[in-house]
Design brief:
single chain, alpha+beta, 12 helices
Length: 365
């Protein structure tokens, strides 16, 4: 079943006209959110414009409804002509429950087709930030090639940072920015936001994008630190080898210089089968199958600077991945893509272990 989140951004005085098109398509749930544009004062002054108030209209649609709404918006609101707004469709990876799906799709009648393609020319970047810092985020985004964005006002609903006043929970005020970017520029824009307006800044921005699975491999923090030559580095997993963890902490504390210990630590977002009560067992599985490697690099180690504490992978790599919903969900939503990414993931894990074996010879000479 192919579903999309269809979103339109228009001037606020056209919001009701756009919402009417959604309702005419027979959609059960249509939402309208209020926002504002992010053009700089210099850009507005150049064209003699004032800051415009925006409205974002959204709904979950099937392929047929999506095509119908695109045609109607072009014909009645001229959405394809610059200055009249923006409309885009974002593929949905999942819906919370069967009843929700039935409600959104009128019992499945309005949604047909298979899995949406993941090869996009453009992608939607969603940035959640502290209220009042949207200019900082947009300055960072523009420095990496973003053309503009739309700011929405929201409330944070997480447990962290909330307080209770006379029994009422007060949530932090937030802004949400939607930025439509070229697929080629997406990574650079997100990196710029993280660097110049990320969690460590006043903006506290968190950027996400709509996609299914990550193509590129993670940076190897351990190898990066070891390349300096004077940093103590260890990778540990307490549930897999408690003695190695304690030894690494002891050596790091005794080392006269910078020390870095990287620990494998499952969290709730990994969605381990059986819950967090099994996190120690999950650490052991990660090490046994080769997903996570244990090692210690001690620049003061003399003839034995590097120690590989992991044994060769014992198999069961794919089974390990399927034990966590953060991975297994991809097999249900994008099965063909999952097969490719999981095979590549295992191959890269084997290559990592072979690289660690070579480091033994390189450092212990």
């Amino acid at each position: 079943m192919e579903l999309y989140y269809l979103m339109s951004i228009t001037d606020r005085d056209r919001a009701e006209d756009m919402a009417a098109l959604y309702r005419d398509a027979g959609l059960n749930l249509v939402t309208t959110m209020l926002g504002r544009g992010t053009a700089t004062p210099q850009q507005l002054a150049l064209y003699g414009l004032s800051r415009t108030e925006k409205a974002v209209t959204g709904a979950v649609v099937g392929t047929d409804s999506m095509k119908q709404l695109f045609r109607a918006a072009k014909r009645k609101l001229f959405i394809d002509i610059p200055g009249n707004g923006l409309m885009l469709a974002v593929p949905l990876k999942s819906v919370s429950s069967g009843r929700t799906l039935a409600y959104l799709t009128d019992g499945g009648k309005s949604a047909t087709g298979g899995v949406p393609t993941m090869n996009f020319d453009y992608e939607l970047i969603v940035v959640i930030l502290n209220e009042g810092h949207s200019d900082m985020v947009m300055d960072a985004a523009r420095s990496a090639g973003a053309g503009g964005g739309t700011v929405l006002h929201a409330k944070g609903t997480g447990a962290i940072g909330t307080e209770k006043f006379f029994g009422v929970t007060l949530a932090n005020e937030k802004d949400v920015i939607y930025i439509v970017a070229s697929g080629k520029e997406k990574a650079a824009i997100m990196n710029a936001i993280n660097k110049d307006a990320g969690p460590s800044t006043a903006a506290g921005a968190i950027a996400k994008f709509a996609a299914g699975g990550k193509d590129t491999k993670k940076k190897d923090l351990g190898m990066m630190a070891m390349s300096y030559g004077y940093v103590y580095v260890a990778q540990v997993a307490m549930g897999a080898n408690p003695a190695q963890t304690i030894k690494a902490i002891t050596e790091a504390e005794a080392y006269h210089g910078p020390s870095l210990i990287i620990g494998y630590s499952p969290c709730e977002m990994h969605s381990i089968k059986g819950g967090m009560m099994n996190c120690q067992k999950e650490m052991k599985k990660a090490v046994d199958c080769g997903y996570w490697n244990l090692f210690r690099y001690n620049p003061d180690g003399g003839d034995k600077k590097f120690t590989l504490d992991s044994k060769a992978p014992a198999g069961g790599y794919q089974e390990f991945l399927m034990n966590e919903a953060r991975y297994s969900r991809l097999t249900r939503e994008f099965p063909e893509r999952a097969d490719v990414l999981f095979k590549r993931n295992e191959d890269e894990a084997k290559a990592r272990y072979e690289h660690l074996l070579k480091l033994i010879d390189m450092y212990d000479k």
